[in-house]
Amino acid sequence: MKKKNLAAMLMAGAMCFSLLAGCSGTGSTGSAAPASEEPSQGTQESAPAETGNQGTEPTGTASGTFKLGGIGPLTTDTAIYGKAAMNGAQIAVDEINALGGAVQFELQPEDDQADPELGVNAYHKLLDDGAQIIVGSVTSGSGIAVSAETYKDRVFTITPSGSSVDVIAGKDNTFQVCFTDPNQGTGSADYIAENLPGAKVAVIYRNDDAYSQGIRDTFVAEAKAKGIEIVDEGTFTKDTQTDFSVQLTSAQNKGADVLFLPIYYQPASVILAQAAAMSYAPTFFGVDGMDGILTMENFDTKLAEGVMLLTPFSADAEDERTQNFVKKYNELHGETPNQFAADGYDAVYVIYEALNAAGCTGDMSAEEICEALVAVMPTISVDGLTGQGMTWKASGEVSKAPMAVVIKDGVYVTP
Amino acid sequence: MEFLSYLISGISLGSVYAIIALGYTMVYGIAKMLNFAHGDVIMVGGYISICATSYLELPGWLSVLLAMAVCTVLGVVIEGLAYKPLRQATSLAVLITAIGVSYFLQNAALLIWGASPKGFTPIIPATNAQGEPNALPLFGGQVSISYISLLTMGACIIIMLALTFFTGQTKLGKAMRACSEDKGAAQLMGINVNRTISVTFAIGSALAAVAGVLLCSFTTSLMPTTGSMPGIKAFTAAVFGGIGSIPGAFLGGVLLGIIESLAKAYISTQLANAILFAVLIIVLLVKPSGLLGKYVPEKV
Amino acid sequence: MNKLTKKIKGLKKTTKVDFATYLGVILAFVLFSVLRDAGVLNRSITGMLVPICAYIVMAVSLNLTVGILGELSLGHAGFMSVGAFSGVIASQSLQAAIPSAPARLAIAILVGAVFAAIAGTIVGIPVLRLQGDYLAIVTLAFGEIIKELINCLLVGYDSNGLHMAFNLDGSLTINDIGMEPGGMAIIKGAQGATGTETIASFTAGFILIMITLVIVLNLVRSRAGRAIMALRDNRIAAESVGINVTKYKMMAFVTSAALAGAAGALYGLNYSNLAASKFSFDTSILVLVYVVLGGLGNMWGSIIAAAVLYFLPEALRQFADFRMLVYAIVLILVMLATNSEQLKTLAGRVLPKRKGAAHNG
User: Fold this and answer.
1) Distance from CA of C203 to the nearest CA of B (A)
2) Given B26, B82, C16, C102, which residue has the most CB atoms within 10 angstroms?
3) Is-contact C227 C238, C-beta < 8 A?
């Protein structure tokens, strides 16, 4: 009887699953829509963990193989960022391995649910599994805790998108691929002061999110310095990101003609839709978190017409490398990559360049690699998808030019 | 006039909470269990509707029906597998199982539909072809209320009336109330308790599907975790109005939306949720069984 | 020897179980310490020791509320949060005054416990007037309120002492709280406590578990504990024999909150970064799962459940994307298995009858 129950339960689980999957299954046969990415993604993700050596075996002397440990949210509501970054990093790893050169990579992504606690757990697990270099964490919160640990253990860390200054503060072995939050805040304020003179700015930001609050703080400080008038500030939290009508009404009543949105694209899409519904049409100004809004499934890109954003990456860029990356990503995961994927991709190339510059070998310990890479990082310059000629300060901060784009007819154009 | 527009956005938000709370309170009232997975059934309903409209290219109303059908089946399957074996167990055991089901649905959705948020085309678009808002102007156009909010309100009222009629007048509804009062006695009177509770779940899940479509029409986007916070808010709304009471759920939901909206507008957008919960606590201290809840005196 | 066995035999059954619990915890501590120092344990497990200790204390303390007092609390993480942040503030601001890490950790844990106890008192007075699911929703509400309030908190420390500000309208930043240049930011609103010196240790965690067990088990076996359980089993009957309802309910609730605060301080000082959003409803539920699976009112059950269930998602990492799905299925199956009638009758035949703790249905 007991066994029967168990079997029934399992069967039902499978049934539920197939029932639900049925929907997206029929969907993907109906059209080449991106909904069917997941099954392949599942196997993709688990592949490097179990059979990661496959790609390296032809040339595979152990001395040339470096094990990269990726940390990022792969489940829960932030999974989109972690998955994108890890998918991007995996593409870079595959490309480098396909070159058949002396340096071969193996990437093991681990889930941290964007939680510092799980980030540290994932980090320990990766070291147990022999990771020599850490690519992570994708989010700032977890990144700060992880980089504190890697600093103690002397493991070289490069975060694709952990943009808080605290991720790198006081840790000589952690480097960022993305802009820091203050960098984006001041960049946005400078851009608005220069190109939208006399603007009355309203800010809507998420006050329980380190990324959003960090950008807002420096934006406001720089705006004051530049004499930009900030007429209204509205906040929201993770728990209230479904309704912005109050914040929008308030901004509208105060006559704001520029709405600065230092937030991710999902709540931004809601704001755009609700603003349109109340016929409020200021100039929307976003930062890198806004990237991805155009490729959001079913999103009416008409709503994003005229949105300005500072982003390091544009999937519409004409250069061959970006086009190749976008094509590969599309083939593998059925969607257009966003900034996080590009950051992940670049992170691996940065490591590649740095390893070459330092002349590291795969049999070196994590600590030896760390010291060697820390020494060369300020000297190298890397061309990536998110910036040409990226260089690093010894503090770990990247310097690259932010790119301001405006959305016209559903694509980014430089104004 | 400003106040009025905040009030209207509060009512719009509140009607979304109310429609979720109706399903919650229905299941709680009969089965006496906190179904924490209710919010996730809503999320599934939203995804089914997206699948139906964008891949099968069904019209909006048909996608709602499809979502209702799928969610009903899902609700019955969940009930049969996870909750039915626990009829004799403590309410805490059932609560934990419900949380397990909630995790299961969220993670299954993550694997099936991916982590990226999906845009949701509202069943009534926010703006019409000319780019004008699809809204009913009031007071000479100074404020307006969107048609989707009116639709949600209408759906709430219809569902509320239908449920009140159903539980009050029909045979099955009476059986449900009997189960709610005393399962043992109901069984002795020849009521099939198990079947009655399954039917309750079926109805609750169908309502969740409707709520899902309306919630997503309101928020215009959908993620695997979309259902969890509205689920908790709706649970709060149901308790606020007196859990188990059908008009109470409606009243609680609408009031909750209004409080949230006004708190954001006049006190602090930072603390909107905190204020909302503080009001809830104060109300419960004054009326320990919610606004319209029945006070059941303890017997020795 | 003979005398000892006789003495042990003569003990009450509950006393035996209690001593076995203490002994088990001590043995586990010795075992893990030895294995760790011998280098047998891998880093994953070593790294998990402190959070496991913190969650064990959380589970035992919640068990006091849910299992012994019989009230469902859905906001236990709120107290953990209060303890964590007050502990971090204490530890960071005493950095110069008390260089010794263990001493600072002890003070931080104490501070965390005291502040959580205060929060527990404030929350307890209104909450304990309610019953059943209404009480549950109010604890949930308090947990959420605490989370939102801490999200708006700005705290810094410089040579003039602590600076605090409450960021009500979202316009303040850490630079606006009047710190002199070079002051140390401790809590930066939503960004939480960053750059915390991580001083928590496994030994401290073990000591905290032992203290928690001593407090909780002694409370439960005392006259007060019997009064609390009488309230759980039948409030009206208990009241009629002269048990002071408010006093005993508050006693259990505040003790539980204080211990959660201590656990929070230990947890907070184990990570360089701590955000208020961590202590959400989900964390409360996580701990509640430990308590329910470990058995209501059963302290050693909570300890084992917390340790095993904390480890489970980590052990499931090989499932990659399916990890949390598998976790959910395991959770449901375990609940079904532990509540199945067939298993219960089987267990009843094999094991001596155990006193099950009832919960208000």
Assistant:
1) 32
2) B26
3) yes
Please compute Rg for chain A using Cα positions: 22
Same domain, A194 and A146: no
How much is the pLDDT for B183? 85
What's the CATH number for B8-124+161-286? 1.10.3470
Q: What is the mean pLDDT of residues B243-257?
A: 91
The residue with greater pLDDT, C133 or A52, is: C133
Q: How many CA atoms lie within 13 A of A410 on its CB side?
A: 8
Determine contact: B103 vs chain C, CB below 8 A.
yes
Enumerate residues 6+ apart whose C-beta is below 8 A from A214: A140, A163, A164, A165, A181, A182, A185, C191
Ranges of residues in chain A whose predicted pLDDT is under 50: 1-4, 6-7, 9-63
Nearest to B180 by CA among B32, B286, B68, B15: B32
Q: What is the mean pLDDT of chain B?
A: 87
Per-residue pLDDT band for B199 (boundaries 50, 70, 90) equals very high
Q: Within a domain: residue A278? A: yes
Domain assignment of residue A225, yes or no = yes
A7 — contact with chain B (CB < 8 Å)?
no
Considering only CB atoms, B281 lies closest to which of C138, C170, C359, namely C138
Q: What is the pLDDT of residues C146-159, one digit of tens each?
A: 999 998 899 999 88
- At residue A38, the pLDDT reads 36
Residues in chain B within 8 Å Cβ distance of C339 = 85-86, 88-89, 93
> Are residue A274 and residue A340 in the same domain, yes or no?
no
Shortest Cα distance from C340 to chain B (angstroms)?
7
Name chain C's partners: 3 or more CB pairs within 8 A. A, B
Look at residue C348 and tell me whether its pLDDT is greater than 70: no
Residues of C in Cβ contact (< 8 Å) with A142: 273
| Orientation angle between helical segments B2-31 and B246-266, nearest 10 degrees | 150
Segments making up each domain of chain C, as ranges: 51-304
C321 neighbourhood in chain A, CB within 8 Å: 41-42, 45-46, 74-75
Note whether A30 contacts B: Cβ–Cβ < 8 A.
Answer: yes
| Chain B residues inside the 8 Å CB shell of A250 | 265
Confidence band, pLDDT 50/70/90 cuts, at residue B207 = very high
pLDDT, average across residues C229-247: 91
Strand partners, A234: A204
pLDDT higher at C168 or A285: A285
> Touching check for B80 and chain C: CB below 8 Å?
no
Mutation to test the B interface, candidates A11, A40, A241, A246, most B Cβ within 10 Å = A246
Question: Is A356 part of any domain?
Answer: yes
Reported pTM: 0.88
Residues A274, A354, single domain; the answer is: no
Note the pLDDT of residue A20: 45
Please give the pLDDT value at position C355.
Answer: 45
pLDDT of residue A381: 92
Q: Which residues 224-253 of A have a C-beta within 8 angstroms of B?
A: 234-240, 242-243, 245-247, 249-250, 253
| Residue C339 near residue B85 (C-beta atoms within 8 A) | yes
In chain C the beta strands, taken as DSSP E runs, fall at: 153-158, 161-166, 184-188, 193-194, 273-274
Say yes or no: A173 and A235 in one domain.
no
pLDDT at B217 over 90: no
Tokens of A288: 């890198």
* Contacts B218 to A, Cβ<8 Å: 242-243
Distance (Å, whole) CA C127 – CA C130: 6
Specify which of A308-312, B251-255, C182-186 reaches the highest per-range mean pLDDT: B251-255
Could you give the ipTM of this predicted complex? 0.88
Q: How far apart are CA B232 and CA B229, in angstroms?
A: 5
Of B86, B108, B268, the CB nearest to C169: B268
For chain C, the first-to-last Cα distance in angstroms comes to: 47
CATH number of the domain that A299 lies in?
3.40.50.2300
Tell me, yes or no, whether A297 and A327 share the same domain.
Answer: no
Residue range(s) defining the domain that contains residue A356: 61-179+320-401
